[in-house]
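User: Sorry, folds how?
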Amino acid sequence: MTNAKIPSFFPDVNTSKKLLALLGWDKIHAQDPSGKIGCVARMEYNQKIYWAVNGAPSDVNNPADNAEKIDILESVLINYCKNAIIVHLDTTKTNINLTEKIIDPKIYFPHAKKTVLLTQYQAACKNSSPPQDKIEVRHFSCCERKLIEAVSNPQKDSFKIDVLKPPCELCLAAKEYLNNPNFQLNYANWWLVKAYDELHHLGLV
């Protein structure tokens, strides 16, 4: 199961900056000065480029992802990557001008060899006693696991995901569950770049 570990390299500032450029992070930040988008990822799969931003619904009865975040991403990609496919889980959003793929994200439990879909979680919350109105957003918000759901056979197909920040424990669990040597996961050390740029501006590094 060593395949699930965070990549053994520690991305340095220059490597991270190249990945941030690939992700168009400066363009996204320019369109999102208030910082609504916390993470972004892109995936190369079957000679196509898929994109996702973080976000998931907190209201059990609301299927919306975060329409505003999707709008920001689209406004960047419409000029930066016109052949992009935006992966999201908002079944109410129909005004995307780029290609889109609506998915039902999962939590992966490698130790139990089980997965749980967002829709299953929402239904269980509604049917619980007493009914649960709110869900844990973090369970389903990650960019990486949204992109994985766009892959036809993620346990065998070849695909590469580049993401702004190091993968969380839930995304590492997904990688362990899939146990696919053809799944490459790269991340930028975003906080290192942020710290370096600030300290460099102050003349400390």
Notes: The radius of gyration is 17 Å.
